[in-house]
Amino acid sequence: MAELNTVARPYTKAAFEYAVAKGNLDQWSDMLTTATAVAQHETMKLVLGNPGLTSEQKADAMITVCEEQMADQSTKNFISLLAENQRLALLPEISAQFEQLKANQQHSVEVRVTTAFDLGEQQQQKLTQALSSKLGREVSLTTDVDKSIIGGVIVRTDDMVIDGSIRARLAKLAEAMNS
Predict the structure, then answer these.
(1) Is residue 136 within 8 Å of residue 149, measured between CB atoms?
(2) What tens digit of pLDDT does each residue of 146-167 get?
(3) How far apart are alpha carbons 129 and 132 in whole angstroms?
């Protein structure tokens, strides 16, 4: 069976191109996020997995629950198309791919920073500026605290991990000493 991301890609691309052309990336992003959450809810999983319901009925159920987020007909048509092609299960992957395309379009990136201690507001601002300069994009910073790293930081983004933690340095030193 084909990988989910491969099957989801044409739907994502079509939705993204349409949203860009109409200038409503945020509306589509919100709709996909909401539709994903609804599709993953236990009750909705039962409805969508019911073989006794037609694809039209499944689409209507999704559209009814997500009605606030589906202000225009194009979003409703998209959900109907997914239901007709039995692809509603792809919503989480479509949403994730859409968000990645949106971030690339807007030259922004989500960065998760793990530190041993809470960062102050000023430290977060300096780190955000440094990362923005390094990555050449606007950075949205999320911080986590993990005392087990002892000190330093671990920076994670889509395709990059920079482990500057004391724990990693100690592990590297121990490995060098055991060699």
Answers:
(1) no
(2) 999 999 999 998 778 999 999 9
(3) 5
